[in-house]
């Protein structure tokens, strides 16, 4: 086994990674491609990739990770990566503890482990649905399913789109907007949204901002940055930045201009994105884990992701895990109880208002 920085992957390593991933049978999520690991490696100095060999010396897999103090490992890009795991040759099944030992890790933590990662699934503490939109049969089939399953939602959203057009001007979507200024506009909207709702502003972290900007310029078959912008009368009203492969769009950062909130521009954006994505050969939009009303209305199904940590034998790893698990269980306790979750949500919103700028 070799443990190297992502930037030290050779051309053959990258080709092998892509080949193994293509043979996995899993959805072609961009987060599982070498380009994502390479991008994180540019902004996270402790990013590493384990290049795993079989008994014959041939490369049989890869595990991207970040190494922390005392050998604590975590999925590469943890906190922003929506799909995580190892990329292994079908049928190749190394022991998790041997893999961790070879990486010099006492534990490997994940929060969006991909379904089917049998190497690490036994270590999962919780599972979550990741909501998806299936447009593999074309947008018309998807809209037909919406009319049957969410008729009021679809009718209301289309009515708001028409009203937006009447009041603000022609509504149009640019699926692949290449203007960097629009990416900065989106990040500004998203940061403001985080603050309004009392959540941690991801873009306040330089590495996340730098990662997003780098991926915006990444163009590879398995992982390309995709900025989609909804315009009304030539003015941007909503936008989304995500990563796409040929067949999957991993939804990442959606936001809108609060001035147009009454039109629900984010919902209009998602419907327009679904149509344009289907026309461009994308078969699935993965909206990620985390319950939200708009996801319930838009989804056609769910995938499963897992949260937990694979812990190597040893007192240090065990103590680290025991120290973290109560917090994980407490968060799960609140999430599983709607009334408590609602109180927590309102508390976050109040905190966000208190932290916001004071009015004169």
From TrEMBL:
This is GNAT family N-acetyltransferase. InterPro entries: Acyl_CoA_acyltransferase (IPR016181), BioF2-like_GNAT_dom (IPR038740). Residues 154-295 form the BioF2-like acetyltransferase domain. GO terms for molecular function: acyltransferase activity. Its EC number is 2.3.1.-. It is an enzyme of class 2 (transferase). SUPFAM superfamilies: Acyl-CoA N-acyltransferases (Nat). The keyword Oxidoreductase does not apply. Pfam families: Acetyltransf_6. Keywords: Acyltransferase, Transferase.
